C-alpha cells in the first residue's frame, strides 16, 4: 500500500424512527447508506420509549456497522441528505421523526465541532444505542470515555424501556 491509499474506516451508525412506515424507511436508509459505504453488518431491531416528550410513539432503533472511505464530515453530509430524501423535517428536539441517522463511532476518532461531535455525545447514556451496538460488536470501545461499551451499558440499569423485536433479516 502506498501513501495515497488508505484503508476504509469502520463506522457505527445509529438508525431510529417512530412515525411513518418505519421499516420501509429503515430499508430506504440502508439502501442509501450502501451507496456511500460498505454495510458490514446490521443489528436486530429494538423498540424503546422516547427520550424527551413522551406523547409520541415508541422508537424503533438499530445500529449498522459500515466501512467507508468518506471523511466524517462527508459521511455526515450524506446521512443528512438521506434523512431529507426520506422526508425528515426539523421538528422539536427529541420529537417524532421518520428517520434519524447518527454517527455513533467513527473508528477511534474524537471530534468536537459546531457541526459534528464524535462519538455521538449522548450514545453512552442510551441503552437503545448501546445494546444493538454490542450485539454486532461485543468488544466495542468508547474512544472518548476510554471504556468498554459493555461496561457503560451495564451501568445504565433497565429503566429505559427497550426490547428486541426482530432480527436484522426483517429489513431484507
CATH class: Alpha Beta
Radius of gyration: 15 Å
In whole angstroms, how far apart are the ends?
35 Å
CATH fold-level topology: Alpha-Beta Plaits
Residues in β-strands, percent: 25-35%
In CATH, the architecture is 2-Layer Sandwich
Regarding quaternary structure, what we see is single chain
CATH superfamily: 7,8-Dihydro-6-hydroxymethylpterin-pyrophosphokinase HPPK
Shape: globular
Contiguous helical run count:
4
Residue windows where pLDDT falls under 50 for at least 5 positions: none
How many structural domains does the protein architecture include?
Answer: 1
Helix content: 25-40%
Calculate the mean pLDDT score and round it. 90
Order of helices and strands: EHEEEHEEEHEEHE
Alpha-beta classification: alpha+beta
Main beta-sheet annotation: 6 strands, antiparallel
| Number of beta-strand segments | 10
Amino acid at each position: 500500500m502506498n501513501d495515497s491509499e488508505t484503508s476504509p474506516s469502520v463506522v457505527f451508525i445509529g438508525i431510529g424512527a417512530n412515525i411513518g412506515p418505519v421499516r420501509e424507511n429503515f430499508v430506504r436508509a440502508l439502501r442509501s447508506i450502501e451507496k456511500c459505504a460498505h454495510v458490514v453488518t446490521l443489528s436486530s431491531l429494538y423498540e424503546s420509549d422516547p427520550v424527551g416528550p413522551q406523547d409520541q410513539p415508541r422508537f424503533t432503533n438499530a445500529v449498522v456497522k459500515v466501512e467507508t472511505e468518506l471523511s466524517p464530515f462527508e459521511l455526515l453530509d450524506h446521512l443528512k441528505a438521506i434523512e431529507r430524501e426520506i422526508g425528515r423535517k426539523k421538528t422539536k428536539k427529541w420529537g417524532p421523526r421518520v428517520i434519524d441517522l447518527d454517527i455513533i463511532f467513527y473508528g477511534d476518532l474524537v471530534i468536537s465541532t459546531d457541526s459534528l461531535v464524535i462519538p455521538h455525545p449522548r450514545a453512552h447514556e442510551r441503552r437503545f444505542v448501546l445494546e444493538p451496538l454490542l450485539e454486532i460488536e461485543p468488544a466495542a470501545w468508547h474512544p472518548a470515555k476510554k471504556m468498554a461499551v459493555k461496561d457503560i451499558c451495564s451501568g445504565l440499569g433497565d429503566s429505559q424501556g427497550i426490547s428486541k423485536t426482530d432480527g436484522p433479516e426483517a429489513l431484507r
